[in-house]
Every structure is written in structure tokens, then in C-alpha cells.
Amino acid sequence: MWWRIATITLLFVTAASALTYWRGSRDYRPSLLAEANRSGGITMSAVTAGGQPSQQLSPETNSHYEVNGFDVNEGKRLYQWFNCVGCHANGGGDIGPPLMDDKWIYGSEPRNIYQTITEGRPNGMPSFRGKIADAQIWQIVAYVRSMSGLVAIQAAPGRNDDIQAKPPETMAPTQPPKKGGTPAPDERSSQ
């Protein structure tokens, strides 16, 4: 009977040590080289100051985004949503360069602005490739260009509601109708 217990114990110890060896030889951590080769890694733009266009841009052109008021206004919303305001303020610049003037480090053409957003720039501008859809990037490009007056005036977005002198009519509190106008026939006789 003791030999059965010894055999089972020996089998159990052998299986446990084999399992420990097998688990210990597996590497669950990804290699740093594999992480660096992923498409979502950090990329630097080959574009230099002065606005040399890159050949890696999206085949989509920006012409229809700049003439469509909805797209420019949507770009304004996305500019707030993706926190471009955090660095560029409302276009006047803060820790990022201003976007309302005529001085553009990498060029004011839509392709250059698209390149800046997708690839990022050294010393501050992060790359948004893979984080924002191409159509949304083009809408942001149209809005950024509208801040400097580079799009048609018909497509320029309206002022923010918080800048208006009074709240918009849809946000005003409801009030009862004021009495006025022509009195009813039965009210005329009493006067």
C-alpha cells in the first residue's frame, strides 16, 4: 500500500515540476522590438519647415470641406472635442502656436495642416494618426483655416453661444405671452 502512495506522490511531483518548467519558459511580455514596429508607434514627420508636402497623404482632397458650412462648423466642434483648445486656445495660441495669424511654420495649405495633425511635429504636437478619422481631420483642417480667414466667408462657422451678447432664443426661459395688440370686440365696449 505504501508503494502506491509513493508512486502517486512521485507522479504528482513530476507533473508539477514539468508544469512549472513549461510555464516558466513562456514569455508573456511583448518584445520591445515588436512594440516599436507596430503601426501605432511614434512617428516623426519628414516634412520640414517651409511646407514641403509629403507624398503619404490621404488621397482625399480638402476642396469640398472648405466650402461646406456644416463641415467647417463640425471641424469647430471637433477642435473642442479633441482638446486642440488645450494648446492652441481658441486660435490665439497658448503653449502651441497661434492659428489666427498669417505666420505658418509648416505652411497654411490644407495638405500641410493635415500632415501636421496626422504626423505631429517635433517639440509638442502629438500625432493623431489612427485616433481621428480622415474625414474628421479634414473638417478640423477646414476650421483651422477658417480662423485665419482662408476659407470662403459663406462657410465660416458662427460665433460660440457663450460669446453672444444675449443667450440664443432656444435657451431663453419661457415666459407667458404679453397682453397687447388689438383688443377683442367684447373688451372694446368696456373701455
Describe the structure.
The structure is a single chain. This protein has about 190 residues and is mainly α. It has a domain at about 65-160: Cytochrome c-like domain (Cytochrome Bc1 Complex, Chain D, domain 2, Orthogonal Bundle). Helices cover about 40% and strands about 0% of the residues. The protein is built from 8 helices and no strands. Helix 4 crosses helix 7 (about 135-145). The longest helix is centred in the first third of the chain and has 23 residues, at about 1-25. The chain is flat and about 120 Å long. The model is unreliable at about 30-40 and about 55-60 (pLDDT under 50).
**Shape call:** flat
Number of helices: 8
Strand proportion, as a percent range, falls in: under 5%
What value does the Rg take, in angstroms?
32 Å
Count every beta strand, where a strand is a DSSP E run of 2 or more residues. 0
* Unreliable runs: 28-42, 53-59
Mean pLDDT: 74
Order of helices and strands: HHHHHHHH
**Main beta-sheet annotation:** none
CATH topology of the domain at 64-159: Cytochrome Bc1 Complex, Chain D, domain 2
Oligomer: single chain
Which percent bin holds the helix content? 40-55%
